[in-house]
Write a structure and sequence with these properties.
The complex is a heterodimer of chains A (about 400) and B (about 400). In chain A, strands 1, 2, 3, 4, 5, 6, 7, 8 and 9 form a 9-stranded mixed beta sheet that branches. Chain A is elongated and about 80 Å long. Chain A contains 13 helices and 15 strands. With about 400 residues, chain A is of the alpha/beta class. Helices cover about 40% and strands about 20% of the residues of chain A. In chain A, a hairpin with a 2-residue loop joins strand 2 and strand 3. Chain B has about 400 residues and is an alpha/beta fold. Chain B folds into 2 domains: about 240 residues, Aspartate Aminotransferase, domain 2 (3-Layer(aba) Sandwich); about 120 residues, Aspartate Aminotransferase, domain 1 (Alpha-Beta Complex), CATH 3.90.1150.10. Helices cover about 40% and strands about 15% of the residues of chain B. Chain B has a 7-stranded mixed beta sheet, sandwiched between helices. In chain B, helix 1 packs antiparallel against helix 8 and helix 3 runs parallel beside helix 4. Chain B starts with a strand and ends in a 5-residue tail after the last helix. The chains are: A alpha/beta (about 400), B alpha/beta (about 400).
């Protein structure tokens, strides 16, 4: 038997002018998410996306659709043959209810009936009542119209009728790419992958840049960052990671100015190099995992001093998150276990014992005058290596 | 690539690999099966057992095959503790995590644990170990060769003193982790006076996934892996015959190499490496020295201490120049620091420790290349230190 996954999207309804654009992006992303699943057909119709797939592939499809931004929910339905009668609908509802019982033993159910085709003789409320009675009689499940464990949906439309039991949540947001492209500053920590996921959730197609300082940082740290990138790619949240050699630049910055400014100097340079990489990729914004107040250097003054070096808008999805919130999200998206692997982000040789908490952009700029910034940026870009993760 | 991390693992000897492959092809049958194929496999297993026993001057009946050194350590420590009446355990602060985590598991289960510290020379004093033993001590665990420092612990002396203070049958079970020793040192469990001895194949050019626990006849163990009754009920599970055959072949090869003077040759090469390495880095790393001095050492381990130089970056810089080794301490970071063994001998966390470990395959050219690479790597990292 074939299954039809009824996929619902949210805010796209608000985007009347751009709606076609968003729908197209969503369909494309759904197709990409389902690549490799044999025999899939995707169509956009009547404000929803229908995904047709063989029963044997349905579980796989469910897992993948659960990671598509832009979808709010979806249900695994069976299509009832055209011009159905109540009998056929009831039979389908019983079958779906039985499947739900076998899977997870719900304690109760209700029927949610919709009649979009007014030619169908039975009004929705009566549909619900009669089909509900049938399901109850045939399965013994209790009816609970206020807080059912499973909702059995029956939809009669002009060209097709669908019956399903239960609905899967999806991450919401906007389809990846619908909002443009951005460059994520990715490290091996807990925060930056989560920041990338949040940015992608609002429709940004992302590439990432990772600053690598061998031999102070080992290959395992680099591997860890790429593993995080591949984890994000499962949500279509990342396409590539550009690995930028940062050792020599970092040494020169550290030795050019007072120790307390080191971290701010590194991050300003990272913004500059990120801008240059973004130029090459056509990205319109930068995304970081910066947070307020987590480490001594992440004060609002320091964020300002760092941001002054960037040309593009800097998005900081996590700036107001508590650590527990970020951690919970990292677990949900599958990056937490990789992030906590103990491979150093920054060698202690480059971190000052007392980082400045209220650095000023002017002070940093004065130190930077001792370096040839354009040459540093050019060398970094020239030595970088772009690794595909999707 | 110049490989100087043989204490972590050694390249598998071609003959051992060939023996493994032959056994894998010829003896896929379960040694427990009643048919001819099973009997042939069983015979091959017993031949391997005899070969390993011969390498220890021991009897085949005293060998329990395991999946490696860690399992053998766990079996020796946990198995003996759980079969004993007493609820006290004594270990040294130098033990490998395979022993230490087992001891800590016992402590979590209600045993009391005493950890005996070493001297700054990297050796525990026999008196100190025995002084920690009480009538209710179930297990004493002392390694034969410390894996990071290469120092040889006074196991026979400890056994003798234990016997004096607590004559059998009241003597606690003495477990000896000989994983780092077996191969380039003669290991004779009976002569050591041990009750159990842990061994690992891949430290002596054998395959991974194979090891053994030598067990004194009469010593009691509660098995960890129950089930099929294999290994006299001490270690259930269908035996990894191909790897055990490879293990046995590696043991025979190691015996022959030892008889031909391999240990002395390796020790001499190691001594030359140490002297040349320290001379080569003296200019850029003032105070570079051997991590421990004075105590007897296994022939293959060179531990070098670099004050002020973080070990991990040095390691990576070394690898970038074609030499693979290991570090006893990570970067002076929040998450890592010196290992427990290094901390126990009094090393501070600003000193990086590099371990270069040789094998009988290491050549003079390897040593020369390693010294040159180390000089350049040390210069790079020393040059990258903060100016202030």
């Amino acid at each position: 038997m074939d299954r039809v996954l009824l996929c619902r999207y949210g805010e796209l309804f608000l985007k009347s002018g751009n709606r076609r654009h968003f729908e197209r992006a969503l369909v494309e992303n759904i197709r990409a998410a389902l690549a490799g699943v044999p025999g899939v057909r995707v169509e956009s119709t009547h404000g929803r996306v229908l995904v047709r797939v063989a029963e044997a592939e349905a579980d796989d499809a469910v897992g993948r659709l659960g990671r598509v931004f832009g979808l709010v929910s979806f249900s695994v339905a069976r299509q009832v043959p055209a011009a159905p009668d109540l009998e056929a609908l009831g039979e389908a509802a019983v079958a779906e209810a039985r499947t739900a019982i076998a899977r997870h033993r719900p304690a109760s159910f209700k029927i949610d009936a919709r009649r979009a085709d007014k030619r169908f003789p039975v009004p929705s409320i009566e549909m619900a009542r009669r089909i509900g009675a049938r399901v109850q009689a045939d399965t013994g499940l209790a009816v609970d119209v206020h807080d059912p464990a499973v909702t059995v949906g029956v939809e009669v439309g002009p060209s097709a009728a669908f019956v399903y039991a239960g609905t899967h949540g999806a991450p919401g947001g906007l389809p990846v790419g619908a909002s443009g492209t951005a460059l994520l500053l990715l490290s091996g920590g807990i925060d930056s992958p989560v920041a990338g996921w949040l940015a992608a959730k609002r429709g940004l197609a992302l590439d990432a840049v990772y600053f690598h300082s061998p031999p102070y940082i080992g290959e395992k740290s680099r591997d860890k960052v790429l593993a995080l990138g591949r984890q994000l790619a499962r949500w279509q949240a990342l396409r590539s990671v550009t690995v930028v050699p940062f050792t020599d630049t970092q040494k020169r910055l550290r030795d050019a100015g007072p120790a307390e400014l080191a971290v701010v100097l590194y991050r300003r340079m990272m913004m500059r190099i990120a801008d240059a990489v973004a130029d090459g990729l056509g990205a319109t914004a930068l995304v970081t995992g910066e947070n307020l107040g987590q480490v001594a250097s992440q004060t609002i003054e320091n964020l300002g001093a760092i941001e002054a070096a960037a040309r593009r808008v800097v998005l900081r999805p996590l700036v107001t998150y508590d650590k527990v919130e970020t951690t919970a999200l990292a677990r949900r998206i599958g990056t937490y276990e990789t992030s906590i692997l103990p491979f150093e982000d920054c060698c202690a040789l480059f971190v000052p014992p007392h980082p400045a908490t209220r650095a000023r952009a002017e002070d940093a700029a004065r130190v930077e005058e001792k370096l040839d910034l354009a040459a540093e940026i050019a060398a970094a870009v020239a030595g970088s290596e772009k690794v595909a993760v999707a | 690539m110049i490989y100087l991390d043989n204490a972590a693992s050694t390249p598998t000897a071609p003959e051992a690999l060939a023996a493994l492959a032959d056994a894998a092809r010829a003896h896929f049958a379960n040694p427990a099966s009643a048919h001819t194929a099973g009997a042939a496999a069983a015979r091959a297993l017993e031949a391997a057992r005899a070969e390993v026993a011969a390498g220890l001057d021991a009897e085949p009946a005293e060998i329990v095959f395991t999946s490696g050194g860690t399992e053998a350590d766990a079996l020796g420590v946990l198995g003996a503790a759980r079969a004993a009446r007493g609820r006290h355990v004594v270990v040294t602060a130098l033990e490998h995590p395979a022993v230490m985590r087992s001891a800590e598991a016992l402590a979590a289960d209600g045993f009391t644990l005493d950890v005996v510290p070493p001297g700054s020379d990297g050796v525990v004093a026999a008196e100190a170990v025995v002084a920690a033993v009480r009538p209710e001590t179930a297990v004493v665990a002392v390694m034969l060769v410390q894996n990071e420092l290469g120092t040889v612990q006074p196991v026979a002396d400890i056994a003798r003193r234990l016997e004096e203070r607590f004559p059998r049958p009241r003597r606690p079970h003495l477990h000896v982790d000989a994983v780092q020793a077996f191969g380039l040192l003669r290991v004779r469990p009976r002569a050591l006076g041990a009750d159990s001895v842990a061994l690992s194949a891949h430290k002596l050019h054998g395959p991974r996934g194979a090891g053994a626990l030598w067990l004194r006849p009469g010593a009691r163990l509660r098995p960890l892996a129950v089930g099929g009754g294999q290994e006299r009920g001490l270690r259930g599970g269908t035996e990894n015959l191909p790897s055990l055959v490879g293990f046995a072949r590696a043991v025979t090869l190691a015996r022959a190499a030892l008889a031909a003077g391999a240990a002395e040759a390796v020790a001499a090469r190691r001594d030359r490496l140490e002297a040349a390495a320290l001379a080569a880095v003296a200019a850029v790393v003032p105070g570079a020295r051997l991590t421990v001095a004075g105590a007897p050492r296994a022939p293959h381990i060179a531990s070098l201490a670099f004050p002020g130089l973080p070990a991990e970056p040095l390691l990576h810089a070394l690898e970038a120049r074609g030499v693979q080794a290991s570090a006893g301490s990570a970067c002076a970071s929040k998450t890592a620091g010196p290992s427990p063994a290094l901390k126990a001998i009094g090393l501070d966390d600003r000193t990086g420790v590099l371990r270069l470990s040789l094998s009988r395959e290491t050549t003079d050219a390897d040593v020369e290349g390693a010294v040159a690479a180390l000089a350049a790597a040390a210069a790079e990292i020393a040059g990258g230190l903060p100016r202030r």
